[in-house]
Amino acid sequence: MPTSTPPGSIRRRPRSLAQEVLDSLTEQIRSGVLAPGVKLPSEFELTQVQGVSRTVIREAILRLQASGLVETRKGIGTFVLENVASTVTLESARLPGGRDVFAILELRTCIETEAAGLAALRADARDLENIYQALQSIEARARLGEDASSEDFQFHMQIARATRNLYLVDVLSQLDPRNAPRANLAPERYLSRVNNEHSDIYEAIARGEAEGARAAMRMHLINSRERMRRAATTSRE
């Protein structure tokens, strides 16, 4: 089985300071540290905490506004919006191998194909390390003959996070990893058939090849649907 190239061996452009501040503030908002209605610290306070210039802080705030997480009231300050915690509600698949699972795989193919392409364009060294470590975790669990569904889900989530699109992350985070096709396959079969597909996705993202990443993700999810179909057919025999 080929080993994926470690992220440190591929040169990527460092993430901007504004993006790092944006990620930090977004995480605080999403986790509730900065609750709805709360006023953000002043520009000066943020420069001291984040260790960056006011220009960087202003750019990060503008991006937060564009994401719909905060609003700035002239002469008063910037406040966390009340409805940032709301997300689209997806009904989890109810029966392994049932129609809902196939429908979710179709949804994932639509969403994650483009997510892989965006990740190839936007991922920095930290993102690549997170994706790579998730890939290694899948391999480790599978070698032990254990179910790797949660690790597999994290692999896909790390790719979604690398897109910098919070809405995409919100939607994918609602998909139950227990409904994934690999949960219905023997671990050794899962390792031999699926790991190469994951490696292809990671390698394309690491090289910054958007079209290659899209193609690899699309093929992986199409194959996953076929594996699920075969597993469902076998279980009825």
UniProtKB/TrEMBL annotation:
Gene3D superfamilies: GntR ligand-binding domain-like (1.20.120.530), Winged helix-like DNA-binding domain superfamily/Winged helix DNA-binding domain (1.10.10.10). PROSITE patterns: HTH_GNTR. Residues 15-83 form the HTH gntR-type domain. Keywords: DNA-binding, Transcription, Transcription regulation. One of its GO terms (molecular function) is DNA-binding transcription factor activity. Signal peptide: none annotated. This is FadR family transcriptional regulator.
